[in-house]
Specification:
Layout lengths: L1 H14 L10 H22 L3 H11 L23 H6 L3 H17 L2 H17 L11 H29 L13 H10 L18 H27 L7 H26 L8 H20 L1 H4 L4 H41 L17 H8 L1
Helix pairs in contact: 1-2, 2-11, 5-7, 6-7, 6-9, 6-13, 9-10, 9-11, 9-13, 10-11
Length: about 375
């Protein structure tokens, strides 16, 4: 198996197309593309196995998993009225840091404040809708909307957007390592090879966005929810602890797969000359759907307890909120662009034009007013 993987990755370096990124080298991203194809093929193989066979494969990889079982009797979200400093501080654990780092990474990928907050708020609604299937989704209101959304997610979004702003303001001038004479300069240039070659400002929406671009951004918000759900359902159905290497490895690889996929999706959604989605984006879409099918196929006992009303309500709310958030972002963009244009006109000394309805009468002089009074 390792030999097959090795030669497949060599073929991917030689034959697969380049992605949107070039640092540290295009070959690295072609290898990553090959890994995503291998992961997709592995999912296709697992889809044709029964649950017992899949679990035996995991037990073969890690025999310790045989002794792990999810505690379904554990209570989550209990005694929510008890809001003490000790209890709130006890919730600031490794998962809180995971929220913070994850949203900082998402902010660097998406680079749009409105879309990020839309995904953050909608994910808490998703947790409430699927709490009857996944007990760990049950959280107290202060844990969900204050610690998660405002503190962890909010700080992560703020830090990520600050990093994006720094990278946008940076001046990118690259010299060949052969033209650098000092050893320290060569080492610094070698380290900088792992930083972006250039950085452009992302503009998902503008006042002149077409309806197709509007729908594409709404799709991005909903697909992101499905990707997050796959993570929790896979971990729950196949019974793995959150800190297991398979779970952590999947999160790292999915994050690396998503980076070029989001870039290709952005180019497709915003560039009218781009007529089709990039290859990495297509492969990741197939991975997302395959993971969802794998969960549904092997989680029959879990999904038999599904409350259809919750799922239908969740889907309707997802669509409505995504449309409202994206529409609000478009209107905010119109407002900011109008205010910027007006402020630039004022700085240049051009008087602001005002609309006056009807005919304007000339201002009468004091003499005419006196004659009229006489």
């Amino acid at each position: 198996m390792l030999c097959v993987v090795f030669f497949f990755l060599i073929v991917s370096v030689l034959a697969f197309p380049n992605g949107p990124f070039t640092r540290p080298h295009p070959a690295v991203w072609r290898i990553l593309f090959g890994c995503s194809v291998l992961y997709l093929l592995a999912l296709q193989f697992l889809m044709f196995q029964n649950y017992k066979t899949i679990m035996n494969i995991f037990y073969w990889l890690d025999p310790k998993l045989q002794n792990f079982h999810i505690n379904l009797e554990k209570e989550y979200g209990a005694n929510c009225s008890d809001i003490s400093f000790e209890r709130v501080w006890s919730h600031v654990d490794v998962f809180a840091w995971g929220h913070f780092l994850g949203w900082a990474f998402k902010a660097v990928l998406i680079r749009h404040l409105g879309i990020l907050w839309c995904i953050s708020v909608m994910w808490e609604i998703t947790e409430m809708a699927f709490a009857h299937l996944l007990p760990n989704f049950l959280e107290c209101w202060w844990d969900a909307f204050i610690l998660d959304v405002l503190v962890c997610n909010g700080l992560g979004i703020w830090v990520g957007l600050k990093i994006v702003k720094i990278l946008e303001m940076r001046e990118y001038k690259w010299a060949s390592i052969r033209n650098i004479s000092t050893t320290s300069g060569k080492l610094k240039r070698a380290v900088l090879q792992f930083t972006p070659e250039s950085w452009i400002a992302v503009r998902w929406l503008d006042p002149n966005s077409t309806y197709m671009r509007f729908i594409a951004v709404c799709q991005l918000v909903i697909f992101w929810q499905v990707t997050e759900l796959n993570t929790f359902f896979l971990k729950h159905i196949f019974e793995m602890p959150p800190d297991h290497p398979i779970v952590i490895g999947r999160l790292v690889f999915v994050g690396l797969f998503v980076a070029p996929s989001v870039r290709q999706y952005y180019i497709y959604a915003t560039d009218s000359s781009c007529k089709r989605v990039g290859t990495q984006c297509w492969v990741y879409g197939a991975i997302m759907v395959s993971e969802a099918i794998l969960c549904i196929k092997n989680g029959k006992e879990l999904f038999e307890r599904t409350q259809a009303v919750n799922i239908v309500t969740w889907f309707i709310i997802q669509v409505i909120i995504s449309i409202l958030f994206v529409y609000g972002c478009v209107q905010w963009q119109k407002y900011t662009q109008k205010s910027k244009s007006q402020s630039s006109l004022v700085k240049k000394g051009v008087p602001e034009a005002k609309e006056v309805k009807g005919k304007s009468s000339p201002k009468k002089s004091p003499k005419t007013k006196a004659k009229k009074a006489d």
